[in-house]
Write a structure and sequence with these properties.
The chain is built from nine helices and 17 strands. With 345 residues, it is of the alpha+beta class. The strands form three sheets. An eight-stranded mixed sheet has the order 1-2-12-3-13-16-14-15. A six-stranded antiparallel sheet has the order 5-4-9-6-7-8, with no helix packed on it. A three-stranded antiparallel sheet has the order 10-11-17.
Length: 345
């Protein structure tokens, strides 16, 4: 695995609607390995990996390029900045954080925090992201030469990859995108008995927006959304609420808030994992959502599921996942695509 690529994906900014720098990496890595490529009107990158095989199943594998983040919405007269959130971000995680504003040049900033010795210790409420002040410490006149309304803002944390783990922002879904790229590099060399498409989609964090228009272009029989999924395997958490666990292999999702995965397809994937001795875990929950929902119900629909790398502290400045789980997710994805021609209802 090219872990330097994973580091680059995590460190490169790409909030919803501004995924162009991530797109450049995806194109650089896999465009020359595929038979055809299209960038659609929204910015989704869609690839046909192998030559068309008439009469065979079509499978689509997707990972979204966007990360949760912010947009500059206002600059105060004194140079303080206001932002709006893009995606689900807990205000309690936002307070006091370092941020990077991606203007004409990148500018480091901090979310203004009241010193504890003068704060109201009886006030336990969280200030909404939109009401927080972002402080660069730069004068207004100079600041406005570098930053304008609409510039993207991300957490200011660089990826750390060592000791068999990854510590980084944006693992939702740069880890899924990494799995997709690594799998394409291997599968493009194989003689497949299916029609294999992949997509790097936009604006998932804003309501699965990009994925909603991909099915009409690909018309897949099967679809797999690659994700970084919530792992809540922490001390004090009841086992039935811990969801996916680190070091236990990829998650095969049965349900979430918006999806009931195709049970036959899931059973097929589970049997492959057992046969190839790839560790995996099943999760059934009624929270969250992925592009799999869109692939299941748009166009002609598809047999849809989610394959995920377990990640602690999702949508935070520093999420954690394990390299071994990434490796096993790549292995299982390769087996799915390589054997999908053997699927029987």
């Amino acid at each position: 695995m090219d872990l330097k690529l994973l580091e680059e994906l995590c460190n490169t900014p790409g909030v919803p609607g501004l995924e162009n720098e991530i797109s450049k990496i995806v194109l650089r890595e896999i465009k020359n390995l595929t038979q055809a490529h299209e960038t659609d009107a929204m910015g989704n990158e869609i690839f046909r990996v192998n030559k068309e095989i008439p009469g065979k199943y079509t499978i689509l594998v997707d990972a979204h390029m966007d990360e949760v983040g912010f947009l500059v919405s206002h600059i105060e007269d004194n140079g303080m900045i206001r932002v709006i959130p893009l995606g689900g971000i807990d205000p309690k995680l936002f307070y006091g954080q370092r941020l990077t504003i991606w203007g004409k040049e990148s500018v480091e900033a901090t979310v203004a925090a009241i010193p504890p010795h003068i704060s109201n210790k009886n006030d336990s409420s969280s200030t909404p992201v939109e009401d927080c002040l972002i402080d660069t410490g730069i004068g207004t006149k100079e600041l406005k030469k570098m930053i304008k309304i609409g510039d993207s803002v991300t957490f200011s944390t660089n990826a750390v990859i060592d000791n068999k783990r990854v510590l980084s922002k944006a693992l939702d879904d740069r880890v899924g995108l990494f799995v997709l790229i690594e799998a394409v590099k291997k599968l493009s060399k194989k003689k497949l008995n299916c029609n294999f498409f992949v997509s790097a989609s936009v604006q998932e964090e804003m309501g699965l927006r990009g994925a909603r228009i991909i099915n009409t272009k690909v018309n897949p029989d099967f679809s797999v959304a690659l994700e970084g999924t919530v792992s809540n395997d922490l001390p004090g958490i009841p086992k039935h609420k811990s969801l996916a666990h680190l070091d236990n292999g990829p998650e095969i999702r049965i349900s979430d808030k918006y999806l009931i995965a195709d049970r036959g397809f899931n059973n097929f994937i589970e049997n492959l994992a057992i046969k190839k001795k790839i560790p995996y875990q099943l999760t059934a929950k009624n929270a969250g959502g992925t592009n799999s929902t869109a692939f299941q119900v748009t166009g002609n629909g598809s047999k849809a599921t989610v394959l995920s790398v377990p990640v602690r502290y999702l949508h935070s400045p520093s999420s954690v996942c394990k390299i071994k789980d990434i490796e096993n997710t790549i292995k299982l994805l390769i087996e799915i695509v390589s054997n999908i021609n053997k699927f029987k209802s």
